[in-house]
# Entry
Amino acid sequence: MRGALESPQASLSSLFKKTFSQVPVSIEALKGDGSSRKIFRLRGKNLSAIGVWGPERKENEAFLSFSKHFRKSGLFVPEIYAENLAAGIYLEEDLGDITLFDYLSKNRSRQKIPSEVVSVYLEVARTLPRFQIEAGKRLDYSVCYPRSCFDKKSMLWDMNHFKYYFLTLAHIPFDEQALEEDFERFSDFLSAADSNYFLYRDFQSRNIMVCNGQPAFIDYQGGRRGALQYDIASLAFDAKANLAADFREEILEAYLKALGKTTSFNRAAFLKYYPGFILIRILQALGAYGLRGFYERKSHFLQSIPFALKNLSWLLETQELGVSLPAFTPLLKKMAASPQLMALGAAPAAKKLTVNVFSFSYPEGIPQDASGHGGGFVFDCRALPNPGRDKNMANLSGLDAEVIALLEKSPEVRKFLASIFSIVDQSVENYLSRGFSSLFVAFGCTGGRHRSVYCAEKLAEHLRRNTSLSAPVRHASLPQPVS
# Structure
């Protein structure tokens, strides 16, 4: 019972110690994926691992079971080091920080994608049949969550999710009865495609890591049986990746060539259903953007909507869906041409948030927030070990290597900072969604030189590493404030 009351960080720290026979020297909260899971990087003396806490036991079971199976099948997925399903936690291999989306974004020049990025994309496409067919044959589908198959019911869930979280929240009028009839026709059409394969479900650039130039794969816990077309459509029409039509075609052809080497399939039958699966994937994505963006007020999700609509416009203009949707098709065309929806991508650019970080001495007083915004946080560091009591460090500060090394070894300091990172991250996400321009965070200690300076620098470092925010630091008790 005691473990159930621990924080995710504490539980993961205990599992790390049990697994590697050492206490982690740091626990860093990583940016989430839009789900309720919490993800951390735990570093030891000579190793690191990714720690995950997830509230859904069945989802955790699916991920762990799939990971072990895929590893045995020779696929590059994270190794599972340890797990505690009762606590909802597990430790997995650290595959780094570079997703395929990051790799694409950092190396492309406008629409020009360099050859090394193209090579990774094509390798990803060629690897997909190994998941779908080779590994899929022996997979334990009994652990799938929330359903064992992407069937008609799953499709209707996605379409209704799109209807209520995107159409309704975007204030797009529709005839519900007519739309429901088209949803039935559309799901019946897609259900006729062969669906006896593993469907990864979220096979897109943020769920593929690039490790030493090679793709590695994560976040397949929603996998189930399904049609071949869905996953390659997810990769090629990944909204914010914004791939050109000719490159999407190159990705598809690389996939189909690899598929033909893996199993016999009917190319004409595959292509008959492919546009429909592109559409339902776009609908699934728009439903997710609506939930996270319109409903949960996470503005960065809204930035993907114009890219999804661009893909939708291309689909409607160049492809035949293979099924008549008399109410739905005009609605989709209206969405794709909406200037209001297309403008959503530009809106967040005007919302720039600065997190002003301070250190100070309590006897000298708490610094004032010059932004006039009000609010924010003041954290008291005086309960932490004080390097200033060591005569060799008394004249140093939290910017000096000796002080940094001492504080980094302290479990109390690591625990303190992990909690602060979580609290500040929550406010940052909320402030971004509401268009706020400033957040004040201050750290105080007795002299304002050691603990508070160190903590202020670590928070600024965390924010700069995990966001694109400006996080200037001012040390009130040091001779020259550092920016």
In short: The mean pLDDT is 93.
